[in-house]
Automatic annotation (TrEMBL):
PROSITE patterns: PROKAR_LIPOPROTEIN (PS51257)
Sequence similarity: Belongs to the phosphate/phosphite/phosphonate binding protein family.
Protein name: Phosphonate transport system substrate-binding protein
Species for this entry: Sporolituus thermophilus DSM 23256
Pfam families: Phosphonate-bd
PANTHER family in alphabetical order: PHOSPHONATES-BINDING PERIPLASMIC PROTEIN
GO cellular component: ATP-binding cassette (ABC) transporter complex
Length: 310
């Protein structure tokens, strides 16, 4: 009887162990039932942020005098368009034109000469022109030190001359054209010439007798006379050349029609914002007006003739 009970106990123990081992094996070897459907939260991709509008510039005034105004304009444009706008600053007009040619700028504050010289593969068009003191035209002033005996441009033969930028109209090409008409070139007419890359720096160079003469934008000269009269007091104007159209705002031609229309409205309305008038005045702009591309055609022919291309 005792043996039978022992046998029953052993059998029960074996059954218990088998059940226990079977349960452990099921937990130790998980598997995926591909017949079961698994639910996921719906994927809702976030729309990519729009690329910032790239605004290029190469200032005709010293950068420290103007960069805060350009930043204010970029902020204003960004606010009106509803997406970011960034400034891309360069030192020379050729560098500015290269940005446009390489498609690395959408909008540019160009100069008269930079626009007239531009022949990049990426086409551009004028969005607006700057108006200052009721006109979109300005002159080139030829200046000399106040105590200089020079009375006319021809008297500068053999002297040191200050140009602003190789592509500048009022700061370089107008003189190149003047000499070309007389079968002269700067390399032979002047003893030496330098580039200052800003009109106000050219005025400073002449006022401090670092150059015997310079040609500068009349609007910049008037600005220097108003803000730094002690410098302007040391120079004289001996000749004027021009007039020429002011530097335009240009855009990539392949921008969407909708964006072009928005930008045109932004620029043409900018002076109506009281907070923007200070920024515009700091850049010698009263307001932006619709462009007159035909005004630049004589200058484009001048640049073609002189080979003043980037």
């Amino acid at each position: 009887m005792i043996i039978v009970n022992i046998r029953c106990a052993v059998c029960l123990l074996i059954v218990f162990l088998c059940v226990l081992i079977s349960g452990c094996q099921q937990n130790a070897r998980p598997y995926i039932d591909f017949r079961q459907k698994e639910t996921h939260a719906a994927y809702n991709p976030v729309e990519a942020s729009p690329k910032p509008l790239r605004i290029a510039l190469a200032s005709v005034l010293s950068p420290k005098e103007t960069i805060s105004h350009y930043r204010r304009i970029a902020q204003y444009i960004s606010g009106r368009l509803g997406f970011p706008a960034v400034l891309v600053q360069r030192t020379t007009y050729e560098e500015l034109n290269m940005l446009l040619a390489n498609g690395e700028a959408d909008v540019a504050f160009s100069s008269t000469g930079a626009y007239s010289a531009y022949r990049g593969m990426a086409e551009t068009e004028i969005l607006a022109m700057a108006e200052y003191q009721g006109t979109t035209l300005y002159l080139a002033y030829v200046i000399v030190p106040k105590t200089s005996p020079v009375e006319k441009l021809d008297d500068l033969r053999g002297k040191v001359f200050a140009f602003t930028d190789p592509l500048s109209y009022s700061g370089h090409m107008c003189i190149v054209d003047y000499l070309w008409q007389r079968r002269e070139v700067p390399e032979k007419f002047f003893s030496r010439y330098i580039y200052t890359y800003n009109h106000d720096k050219s005025v400073w160079a002449v006022a401090n007798n670092l150059a015997d003469g310079a040609s500068v934008d009349s609007m910049i000269y008037d600005y220097v006379a108003a803000t730094k009269p002690e410098i302007a007091a040391n120079v004289r104007i001996i000749a004027t050349i021009g007039p020429a159209p002011t530097g335009p705002v240009v855009i990539r031609k392949n921008l969407s029609p909708e964006l072009k229309a928005q930008l045109r409205m932004v620029f043409l309305d900018m002076d109506k914002d009281p907070q923007m008038r200070t920024a515009l005045q700091g850049l010698l702009i009263d307001r932006f007006v619709p462009p007159q591309p035909e005004l630049y055609e004589p200058l484009r022919r001048l640049y073609d003739r002189a080979g003043g291309l980037p």
